[in-house]
Amino acid sequence: MASPDAPVVVGIDGSDEALRAARWAAAVADGFGAPLRIVHALPSLGRNLTQTAAALTAAMMSYQQDMAQAFLKAATETVAADHPELRVTTDSFNEPADQVLIEASRDARLVVLGGKTVSPAAALLLGSTALSVATRAACPVVALRGEHVAPGTGPVVVGVDDSPAAQAALATAFDFADRFGLSVIAVRSLSLAAPMETGVTIPLLIDWDGVESAELAELTETVAVHNKRHPGVEAKCFIEPDSPGKALLKHAAESGLVVVGSRGRNVLAGVVLGSTSLNLLHHSPVPVLICRAPSDA
């Protein structure tokens, strides 16, 4: 990931989900020997469609501003109870959280967000801090899911295709697994080898066993490159005959973290075209780490 001095940044809003995110971020920061930066900012609420919604928004903004220091104090005390030696700094901003966290990502090792799942409707109509930050941040972003307050002992599941973003995800997965003594499960979707891309029009005549063997050999070779850099990490490879999102979710339940690459699509494109990252943000039972290719950051 980044240099040792780059902090793990976590966004909080006073919710229980945000406190869990702070604890998870603190555990990761402690594991990497990095500082933790706790940030409070105003909600990213999208458009107000009615006068009632505008009034509720104003009230929420006022409440968040008034309670900012109390929220930061509570998060700091919670983190200190788990990791008393961890270096922690706090900041409060009267700006939208997505803008603040995207700016903070420029100097961060990782950005961690708590909060609710992201549905396609919410992403399209209201916007989402998690989706906005994940598609625009300069560093990997973790959307905390489930009840986790630390990385745990489950394997790191990572989706692998031929894109630069997926290669960045694979490197990040091995780095994370090596640091926390975890294994890696690399998953490739067989649907990526679609018949239409090869000009074949009679799928029943395709040697799908042969295709799967070829895909597995390619995946194993790709994973081996990263495994040589992290020889202490046990890695397994799987080819799944499902869409990328379903293939990853099949392995997510027993994992502690799912890592996926994002091509940096905007919110509308992610909803209309379909997005593995969006699917995981909506359905994953464990934290989701989203990486972008270095050229996209």
TrEMBL record:
Residues 8-145, 155-292 form the UspA domain. It comes from the Bacteria. It holds the Pfam family Usp. Belongs to the universal stress protein A family. This is Universal stress protein.
